[in-house]
Predict the structure.
Amino acid sequence: MNAVKDLLKSGKTIVGTAGSPHPEVSAVLADAGFDFLLFDTQHSPYHMKDLAAGIQACNGKKAAPFARVDSIRSEQILFALDAGARGIIVPMVNTRAEAEYIVESCRYYPAGKRSNGGMRGDWGETKDYQDYMETVNRDLVIIPMIETNEAISNIDDILSVDGIDVALIGPSDYSIELGVALDYTSAEYEAGLDRLAAAAKRNDVVPGMYFIPPGMDPNWFVAKGFKVFTMPWAPWATDGIESAISGINRD
């Protein structure tokens, strides 16, 4: 059911953008061509329950709702999944034990320890509750964020955990940890990207960027193997509106 999961397996590039707590905005964005909408609670003024309406506005739309929780806590993951998220992003994952905890929190028994609260989210037609649980366990996209030197030192242990789909760099924190704060064009940063991409390839995981740094070409990252990232939708929307209006005779 989760088209993003199929795209990951196919090796295609997956592009998302920020979701909105306003369901009307999310409904438009979810049919605008993006593969996923990202609903954030780590660096935003919202709690996950505030974003539920925006997440549910993606039901039946092209883009899958992904949620970034604020920390490695099972109850935050549960709130996001119960709201209908089809992808979970967890920040500051540094060890194999943390990665295993995340996967267990995302999956229903026997694959994990997620509490059952009824059928949640848009997972297509399922025959019964058992089929629903198996579908979620199979198709949910699970994404730890790699942002620290500790994570890099443990990278193969983290990415070898069964159930991890994407290794997502947090560009700002990653650059700070590499000693080149926000210098996204430095040789040190490029080498850091290459280390993550190589580790992801070894473990059959897709490397991604939380965002493409301003002014940089997304295709530069795609060429390095980074196939999951977000782009800001507002500039594209503004350009589209200006282009449409300019085609109207207003004299």
Remarks:
- Strands lie at 14-18, 36-40, 64-68, 87-90, 141-146, 166-169, 206-211, 228-230.
- Residues 3-243 form a domain with the TIM Barrel fold (CATH 3.20.20.60).
- The chain has a mean pLDDT of 96.
